[in-house]
Amino acid sequence: MSRQKSRDTGVEIALRKALHAAGARYRVHRRPVKGVRREADVVFGPARVAVFVDGCFWHGCPLHAKWPKNNAEFWRAKIEGNRRRDCDTDARLAEAGWLAVRVWEHEQADEAAVRVLAVVASRRTGSRSKARGQGSVSNI
User: Fold this and answer.
1) Is 7 left (phi over 0), alpha (psi -120 to 50) or beta?
2) Per-residue pLDDT tens for 59-103?
3) Contact 32, 93 (CB under 8 A)
4) CA dihedral in degrees (17, 45, 35, 105; nearest 10)?
5) pTM
6) CA distances from 42 to 36, 39, 132 (A)
7) Residues ≥6 apart with Cβ < 8 Å to 87
8) Please, which of 17, 48, 115, 136 could form a disulfide with 98 given CB 3.0 to 4.6 Å?
9) C-alpha to C-alpha distance for 101 and 42, rounded to whole angstroms
């Protein structure tokens, strides 16, 4: 496992290239929330969107994950633990006002980039309308 690359994987770089080509600017490998020891692969700070690129094997993709036959108990516990941690991360980020977007390694980078950019755009327009007083309960 120590030889398994955890940063700058091919899938992650392809996603970042597609996002950059579309004009998006972001931070790479940051902890979105202080005090929470979870690092997002791509972070859009002003929109409060954290993107995680999940490997099909390591995060138990419902379409492509294969359960190993050797040392099966260990691997099942490991992968299910990763899934629980992913859910916990999403919940902690949501508590802090962030939105976690999960991208599977089998997704096409261009399609995933379009999905991520749509989320970022919707979060940005939502924050602008609140800043203008629209949709804010305190202004009623």
Assistant:
1) beta
2) 999 998 888 999 999 999 999 999 999 999 999 999 999 999 999
3) yes
4) -30
5) 0.85
6) 16, 9, 28
7) none
8) 48
9) 10
